[in-house]
Amino acid sequence: MKWFITLNISMFLFAVLSPTELTAQTDWKHFTDQPVLSFGVEGEWDSGTVFWPTVIKDGDTLRMWYTGSNDALGAGTVQIGYAWSRAGRTWRRYSGNPVLSSELTWEKGAVLSPVVIKDGDIFKLWYGAGGTPSTSIGYATSPDGLNWKRHPTPVLDRGSTGDWDSNILGPGAVVKESEAYKMWYWGGRGNWPGSEIQIGLATSTDGIHWVKYDDPATIGTPFSNSDPVLKIGSFDEWDSLRVWTPAILKTTTGYQMWYAGRPEASLSSQLVGYAISMDGIKWEKSPDNPIIDTSPAWGSSYLTTAVLQIEDFYHLWYTSFTFAARGQKGEIGYAISPVLNGSGSDSEIPSGYFLAQNFPNPFNLSTVIQYDLPERAGVTLVIFDVLGRRVKTLVQGIENAGFKTITWNGNNELGEPVNSGIYFYQIRAGNFIQTRRMLLLK
User: Fold this and answer.
1) What is the distance between the alpha carbons of residues 67 and 111, in angstroms, rounded to a whole number?
2) Reduced to 3 states, what is the DSSP secondary structure of residue 73?
3) What confidence score (pLDDT) does residue 4 get?
4) Are 274 and 263 in contact (CB under 8 A)?
5) In b/e form, how buried is each residue of 140-157, taking b as 16+ CB within 10 angstroms?
6) Average pLDDT, the chain
7) I want to staple 145 with a disulfide (CB 3.0 to 4.6 A). Which of 94, 96, 123, 249 is the partner?
8) What is the predicted pLDDT for the residue at 16?
9) How does pLDDT run across 217-250, given as a tens digit for each residue?
């Protein structure tokens, strides 16, 4: 499975954890072959690298907190900035950036890898500190996501000498369930960049006092005090050195995780895997891993930190690094994927015909349309303007049953860009006809 313009990522449905669901597929598509947030201009605080984004949806706004550095690969001064977006592709930096800088002795000049949730009216931030990568996890709160009041001491520290997380520690994802918090964090031992890194789980009732998961069945070093819940693969597997930077989505019956992994210290070898769990402790890796095994056109390697599900689509914001000729500076990319309807995959059959609302809507440069075919059928998918004139035929022909997606780039049949305005897209498949409306804004 390759990521060129289309990404293939395993998605799983959780009614029953079956082998069929572990091979379910959807297609990830870039909105652009360029990053959606690049490093700043020379002299700015984030001129060397932007990476480790966390994204939440707050009303009609997407909010991103990200790590920035004035040097490549996260060297130099490392701080946290803020940006916002309506649709996830175009981001506006906050003019007062950075919003969090190192101030406390234990932070040692670096604050990074932010994880943010909105709990009621309060934004809560967990962040790494003490180096790049980090060695401790801090905590701060804010009424607006811009002005932060931090806890004076780390809320989670490395393990003891010899433990699996004795050298490196950083936050990956936080989920609040009822009155309890769950944090999937990454921890490692050994000297960077050859560190062996794995993913652990800690729980808390207040977001400040955390207890690491400890399997009572493991009593020897390096798991005598705590245990990772997602371990590295065996020596000949793609993630044999490192699994880290998890992005977590809570489902009605469990959890989904996307994570970065690699078999060696080389940055260019870092790929993306997928795992599922019913309890957040016992994880099952996809047999299709790595599910992203080709770098984007503009960079190499991956860090995974932000995945959202919004209506009928999954959204992925990731970090990749420019090629050596451009100084290996981190930038942030974006892709989306339709959510499968029913309990199916590419090898299964949808329960009925379906035409989804396009995303994003309104859109600027391009938009994705999803449709489902429960049987082999003749399909026509056409764009019309408000006067009923045909603008663009996207699909015309016989297609097999399955979950389908297609992108419209706002051009007509001649390849010319159309004007802003309301457009309609209509599918005819067998006896099924459905029309939806979309809005193009330029």
Assistant:
1) 8
2) helix
3) 32
4) no
5) bebeebeebebeeebbbb
6) 88
7) 123
8) 37
9) 999 999 999 999 999 999 889 999 999 999 999 9
Distance between terminal CA atoms of the chain?
A: 34
Residue 122 identity (one-letter amino acid): I
Long-range contacts of 139-144 (CB under 8 A, 24+ apart): 139/207, 139/208, 140/100
Express each pLDDT in 82-121 by its tens digit.
999 988 888 999 999 999 999 999 999 999 999 999 999 9
Q: Which two tokens stand for residue 92?
A: 């506006």
From 430, 423, 381, select the one nearest 405 (Cα to Cα).
381
Token readout for 308 is 């959202």
DSSP 291-316: SB-S--TT-EEEEEEEEEEETTEEEE
> Which amino acid type is present at position 320?
S
Q: What single-letter DSSP state applies at residue 328?
A: -
* pLDDT band per the 50, 70, 90 thresholds, residue 324: low
Other residues' Cβ atoms within 10 Å of the Cβ of residue 394? 17
Give yes or no for a contact between 273 and 243, defined as CB atoms under 8 angstroms apart.
Answer: yes
Nearest in space to 58 (alpha carbons), one of 5, 118, 140, 134: 118
Summarize pLDDT for 163-213 with one digit per residue, the tens: 999 999 999 999 999 889 999 999 999 999 899 999 999 999 999 999 999
- Let me know: does 66 contact 51? Beta carbons within 8 Å: yes
Helix, strand, coil in percent for the chain, rounding step 5: 5, 50, 45
Q: How would you classify residue 47: left for phi > 0, otherwise alpha for psi between -120 and 50, otherwise beta? A: alpha
Q: Which residue, chain included where needed, has tokens 């997602």?
A: 230
Q: Measured between alpha carbons, how far is 348 from 413 in angstroms, rounded to an integer?
A: 33
**C-beta separation of 33 from 334 below 8 A:** no
* Residue the block writes with tokens 């966390």: 54
